[in-house]
Amino acid sequence: MPLQLECPAYPKVQTLAQRSRVLAMLDAILSPEWQYRYFSYNQSWSVHQEMASMRDGAGTHYFMLFVPGGCAIKEFDLDRLQGADFDDLRFVAEVAALAPEPYQPFFNEPAFVLSETSAIAWFDVERQTWFRVEHPSAQPSSAELMQMVLGGTPESYVAWATEYFEVEVPLTAVKQLFSFSPLTPDIVHQLNADVNMDDLMEDITEIGYPVEE
C-alpha cells in the first residue's frame, strides 16, 4: 500500500483555487490561442466541481478537481521518470482506496489521464489537512512541477511568462491579478494591446475571474 504523507505546506483550498484562476486568466490574456497556454481553469467542470490544469506541451502536467471544501490533485512530472514506467493504474487504484469518498469521481475521470501519474494529493476536509502520495518509482527532481501555483509570486510569473511567451510582461498588471483585483480594460491593455475585454468574455466566464462593474 502506498505511503500517504501529510503536507501542511500546501495552501488552503480557497487560496489554491484563487491562484489557479489568476494563472489561467493571465495566460488567457497573454495567449489568445488556447493550445499555447500553460494554465487553465473551468469553474463549471461539473455539478459542484471545478477543474484547474497545467500542461507544458511536452507531456508534464497536473489536474486539480475542486469539490465543496476540498481538492484532489494529480501530477505527472516527466523530470521524475528516469526510465521508470508510470503507466500503471494499480497505483491509482491503491491511492483511491485511501482517499475520502468525495474524491472518488476524481479517480474515474478519463480527462485526467490517470495512467500517467507521478503523485496524487488531496485535502481531507474532516481532518483539515493535505495528504500526498508519491508513486514508488518517482525520482527526486530539481524542478518543482507545481511551484507557480503553490508559491509563485508576481515576479516569478513575469520571469517565466516573459521567457515562455517571448513578450514583455508588465509587473504592475500582474500584481493586480495576483491580488485578485477585478479585471479592467486597462489591465488587459497593459498585458496585451491586441486583446480587449470582449475578446476575453468566454474565458472570463469559464475561469470565473471577477471583472470591474
Description:
- This is SMI1/KNR4 family protein.
- The chain is an alpha+beta fold and 213 residues long.
- It has one domain.
- The chain is built from seven helices and seven strands, in the order βαββββαββααααα.
- It has helices at residues 13-30, 89-96, 147-151, 154-165, 171-178, 185-191, 197-207, and strands spanning 4-6, 39-46, 49-55, 61-67, 70-76, 119-124, 129-134.
- It has a seven-stranded antiparallel beta sheet.
- Helix 1 runs antiparallel to helix 7 (197-207) and helix 4 packs across helix 5.
- It is globular, with a radius of gyration of 17 Å.
- The mean pLDDT is 90.
Offer a quick outline of the entry.
This is SMI1/KNR4 family protein. By secondary structure, the protein is of the alpha+beta class.
Q: Main traits of this protein?
A:
213 residues; alpha+beta; 7 helices; 32% helix
